[in-house]
């Protein structure tokens, strides 16, 4: 990371987005967030920027459609390594998604950029935790196939920060909150206490990330005179968002800014699924 710091926030964000090697990308993000907090980065919220539709990626893992990624079991060492790798892949993509939110959408309040820089920094830390644990299984990030679906949603929502806030934090990341208790149960059964600890850290932070998405989604809805709850449901349909599958982690979603009417609606989805 030698040389003088780049002058503006968009330039610094672009450098991190374009970094291809995971270690370099994480280091770039940590340095950027530290510089931002120390006041060493020009805010430049309205500065011209060229969207980066293909962020830097390492040569591995091999990326395949989601349906071609094998199922991952936690009750064998190989299966658990594959599961940890899949979670590391999610976190690596989450770094890019957070950087992209700050880089792509000009003209937002400074607090918006501060929030997404913090998210990127925490996602990089999550990736590092997972990759360190993966190494105890004799593997590294890139050793297993991974899917392309996460960044696809970034491109589908690239034209509008309201749509991005609705469908990335409040759908993709919220689905992660739903899945965490099930994964933790499997890891406890496998006696992987370190991985359970790591998931506890990730869940705590991800609740905050979804809450950030909820806050800016509500802010943008208010600015445009839109009802957040009806708009959210319509966006799920309009953008063919991943289906909402129970069980839902209602406690975590409540902490993450989902309203009581939204939670009641999710509960009705759960009940409808149980009746099938």
What do these coordinates show?
The chain is an all-alpha fold. The chain has one domain: Ribonucleotide Reductase, subunit A, CATH 1.10.620. It is 66% helix and 1% strand. It is built from ten helices and two strands, in the order H-H-E-H-H-E-H-H-H-H-H-H. The chain has a two-stranded parallel ribbon with strand order 1-2. Helix 1 (9-18) runs antiparallel to helix 3 (77-104) and helix 5 runs antiparallel to helix 6 (161-189). The longest helix has 32 residues, at 193-224. The model has no long low-confidence stretch (mean pLDDT 92).
Q: Low-confidence spans: pLDDT under 50, at least 5 residues?
A: none
Counting DSSP E segments of at least 2 residues, the number of strands comes to: 2
- Main sheet properties: 2 strands, parallel
Question: How are the strands of the biggest sheet laid out side by side?
Answer: 1-2
Percent helix? 55-70%
**Range of strand content:** under 5%
Structural class: mainly alpha
> What's the helix count?
10
Q: Separation of termini?
A: 55 Å
Whole-number mean pLDDT: 92
Q: Please tell me how large the radius of gyration is.
A: 19 Å
Order of helices and strands: HHEHHEHHHHHH
CATH topology: Ribonucleotide Reductase, subunit A
Identify the overall geometry. Answer: globular
> What is the name of the CATH architecture?
Orthogonal Bundle
Defining key terms:
2 strands; about 65% helix; two-stranded parallel sheet; about 280 residues; mainly alpha; Ribonucleotide Reductase, subunit A
């Amino acid at each position: 990371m030698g040389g003088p710091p780049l002058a503006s926030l968009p330039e610094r964000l672009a450098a991190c987005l374009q970094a291809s090697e995971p270690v370099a990308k994480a280091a770039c993000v940590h340095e950027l967030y530290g510089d931002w907090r120390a006041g060493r980065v020009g805010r430049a919220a309205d500065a011209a920027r060229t969207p980066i539709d293909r962020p830097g990626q390492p040569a591995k893992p091999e990326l395949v459609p989601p349906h071609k990624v094998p199922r991952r079991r936690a009750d064998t060492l190989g299966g658990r390594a594959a599961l940890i790798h899949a979670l590391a892949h999610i976190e690596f993509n989450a770094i890019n998604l957070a950087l992209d939110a700050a880089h792509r959408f000009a003209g937002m309040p400074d607090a918006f950029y501060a929030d997404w820089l913090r998210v990127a920094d925490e996602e990089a830390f999550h990736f590092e935790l997972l990759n360190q644990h993966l190494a105890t299984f004799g593997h590294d990030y890139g050793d297993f196939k991974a899917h392309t679906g996460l960044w696809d949603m970034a491109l589908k929502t690239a034209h509008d920060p309201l749509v991005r806030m609705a469908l990335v934090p409040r759908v993709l990341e919220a689905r992660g909150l739903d899945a965490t208790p099930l994964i933790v149960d499997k890891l406890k059964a496998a006696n992987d206490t370190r991985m359970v600890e790591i998931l506890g850290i990730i869940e705590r932070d991800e609740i905050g990330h979804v809450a950030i998405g909820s806050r800016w989604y509500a802010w943008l809805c208010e600015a445009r005179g839109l009802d957040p709850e009806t708009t959210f449901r319509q966006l799920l349909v309009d953008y063919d968002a991943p289906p909402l599958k129970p069980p839902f982690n209602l406690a975590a979603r409540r902490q993450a800014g989902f309203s009581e009417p939204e939670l009641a609606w999710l509960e009705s989805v759960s009940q409808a699924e149980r009746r099938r």
